Amino acid sequence: MQQCRFRNPQAAKFSMLNLQTLKTPCLILDSERVRHNAERVSQIALNNNVRLRPHIKTHKCVEVARIATAKHTGAVTTSTLAEVWAFSKRGFSNFTYAVPIEPGKFAEAIEIVRSGIKLYLITDDVEIPATLNDPARAAGVILNVFLKVDCGYHRCGVEPNTKEALEIPKQIADASNLNFAGILTHAGHSYHAHSKEEIAEIARKERDVMVELAEKLRGLGIEVPVVSIGSTPTIHHIDHLKGVTEVRPGNYIFFDAFQATLGSCSFEDCALTVMAAVTHRDRERRKIIVDAGAIALSKDRGPVEFDSTCGYGRVLDLAGNDLWLRVESLSQEHGSFYVPDNKTFDKLIVGTRVRILANHSCLAAAQHTHFNVLENEKIVDKWEIHRGW
């Protein structure tokens, strides 16, 4: 699937715009960095002989997903069923819905499968297989279901050494209209590691826990087709992936201030910024107000464990150079930061555009309707963000 740069007659006109003329706040996406980030993880997957099923919740954008899945199967991971519908209408056909399925979404999941879309669900609840099997049987469909495993994050998933870790796969495998797809985990606690060595240790445990559980299940006669792991920090620090069949990182495609501080990337790898305009300046208090607040940036507190002064994002100039300023407070439509240096303060007159590297690119992107695509220092396109649940 090739990227189409200009999708409509207006896009060519749009390519003549420059950063100064864009309405703020808005997203600026550096497509060269996106491609570089995509290639980096693609090679990790290829070199380790595992399938790449990138998580699209970071961007919710078809064009970005096409870049991420180039050289791979085109399979993706989603966080909403709305993403499944939107992407299935644009050429994608293989999805893992990576939120534990609950009864209120059974009917929609069945509708998706009946439409011909390949969909994988996950569960960590011992009651769900039987409850899910009944409507699947009534609809005459087979549903693919993963066991969600807790490898140390303690958000969702069954502990690998509990009876549920064996019982749930057996229930799925024995159900008339369910197919046991395998086991799946996410090492989200890697975001709180304090060193590259600690991330590497979490990555090894993520892999080893899953490989050991897969072997245990196989020893009981339960086939485990897929062993799926994934997080942006761990994929960049793993020594090998033997026994793993699939990886599902997501944030790597953009990275953000959190990942750069954590050491998963450099700040030069970060592809997404929020452009804002200066709307107020207070010389006495050395304070600048911009029109990007919580709705434009999100209120993610960022890597405060590692950088207590991180605020809500790094302030860059229009060219992307770090001004060494941090957004210190947010209200709904206002962001504020302090500028102790007179020379810098004098340059930030009302109307000046700045770019903010947000703490969490996934949350920042989800606040907007589209990306303004930057290539060779020019805006060349708009890529839609498909939101909703």
3D shape: elongated
**CATH structural fold name of the largest domain:** TIM Barrel
Number of helices: 13
Structural class: alpha/beta
Determine the N-to-C terminus distance.
Answer: 26 Å
Mean pLDDT over the residues: 94
Radius of gyration, in Å, reads 22 Å
CATH class of the largest domain: Alpha Beta
Q: Give me the CATH superfamily of the largest domain.
A: Alanine racemase
Query: In percent terms, what proportion of residues is strand?
Result: 15-25%
Low-confidence stretches: 1-16
CATH architecture of the largest domain: Alpha-Beta Barrel
Q: Summarize the main sheet.
A: 10 strands, mixed
Give a count of the beta strands, DSSP E runs of length 2 or more: 18
Domain unit count: 2
Helix content bin: 25-40%
Explain briefly what this protein structure is:
With 389 residues, this protein is α/β, with parallel strands linked by helices. It folds into two domains: 222 residues, Alanine racemase (TIM Barrel), CATH 3.20.20.10; 118 residues, D-serine dehydratase-like domain (Lyase, Ornithine Decarboxylase, Chain A, domain 1, Beta Barrel). Helix content is 31%, strand content 23%.
